[in-house]
Amino acid sequence: MPRRNPLLIGMRLGGTLKELVILIRDYERGDCSAITVLFYETVHSVNSKDYSGEQIRAWATEVPDAGAWHSRMVRRCTLVAEEDGHVIAFAELERDGHLDMLYCRKDAIGRGVGWHLYQAVEKRATVLGLKRIFAEASITARPFFERQGFILRRQRTVTRGGVEMTNFAMEKQIT
Fold first, then answer.
1. Measuring CA to CA, how many Å separate 149 from each of 14, 15, 82, 94, 103?
2. 75, 114, 126, 157: least CB-packed within 10 angstroms?
3. Using one digit for the tens of pLDDT, what is the confidence trace for 19-64?
């Protein structure tokens, strides 16, 4: 049975403190469809401020095949952030420390969800005996990773579907 780690996150809305209950847990098969839609919608909404329409379409041409993604996610340390029974963020950590994905739904950004999810990833990496986490961050995600203590290794140009786009090789040493 997956570990369940509920978090209470307090945030001020209109001068009043509102508590949000976010559950950070291991990936379950039933999450896959929600995750693929979350990925597609996040790229098309959040990342569109930093990438052209052509780049966005090359990055996420359609909602990915849930079966193919499930096959990959079960082989990795995949964590999910859930609120009110809905997946609002996910992260995939490979056994070598590569953080392949960390995506938050548009309405989860700026509420501390990504930070809490990343903290859970880092704790899991420590349990796995990893000494570093590394990622290829988008232009959009680079500031988030810098706030988590990642350092820039180099700017990269990658090609997806024949379209060039920029991302950043980043790394963090963990103890």
1. 31, 31, 25, 19, 18
2. 157
3. 668 999 999 999 999 999 999 999 999 999 999 999 999 999 999 9
Does residue 156 contact residue 169 with C-beta atoms inside 8 Å?
A: yes
Phi first, then psi: what are they for 51, rounded to 5°? -130, 150
Domain range list for the chain? 4-130
**Tokens describing residue 160:** 């997806």
Report d(CA 104, CA 86) in Å as an integer: 12
Is residue 13 pLDDT above 50, yes or no?
Answer: no
Q: Compute φ and ψ for 61, nearest 5 degrees.
A: -70, -30
Q: CA 36 to CA 72: how far, in whole Å?
A: 12
Domain made up of 4-130: CATH architecture: 3-Layer(aba) Sandwich (3.40)
Q: Quick one: pLDDT at residue 19?
A: 65
pTM above 0.85, yes or no: yes
